[in-house]
Amino acid sequence: MKKIDPKEIRDNAVQLIGHDWMLVTAGTPEHFNMMTASWGGLGFMWKRPVAFVVIRPQRYTFGFIEKGEEFTLSFFSHEYHKALSVCGTTSGRDTDKVAASGLTPYVTENGNVSFGEARLVLECRKLYAEALKPECFLDKAIASEWYAAGDFHKMYIVEILNAWVEE
């Protein structure tokens, strides 16, 4: 992987996250979990390159994100969609997702986990976190459609510390 400045990311974020998906990976090299996500974004805030991700509290990865300060977002070519499906439909509580997905973990220079098959890796540090609140939805239909069970995501705004692309 080649390290780049986050300003050099050329991908369309809507395509990257909404269609290609990403793996959110948190924890230590000895104990981590990853989950597939297709909601989030990339941008610039507080004079920093940022990403935002939303995680439901019942997801196993949520505890890892809450405990740590940093995590990775890993993006893959379409040929890895099946592996990402495994990571999004099974729980790390009772499944070895690394074995089930066939992905190869590696440790970043900051000690976070990503995967050798990724074509883009963003190493991120938490800046802001807040649970989504039903009363804050201006379009009430969104809360009704996506949160009928009341299981609102927690949103994290994270600084992109490091970015790598495949060479």
TrEMBL record:
Please report the stretch or stretches of sequence annotated as the Flavin reductase like domain.
21-167
> What's a Pfam family this protein contains?
Flavin_Reduct
Member of which family?
Belongs to the flavoredoxin family.
What is the protein's name according to its record? Flavin reductase like domain-containing protein
What's the source species for this entry?
A: Akkermansia biwaensis
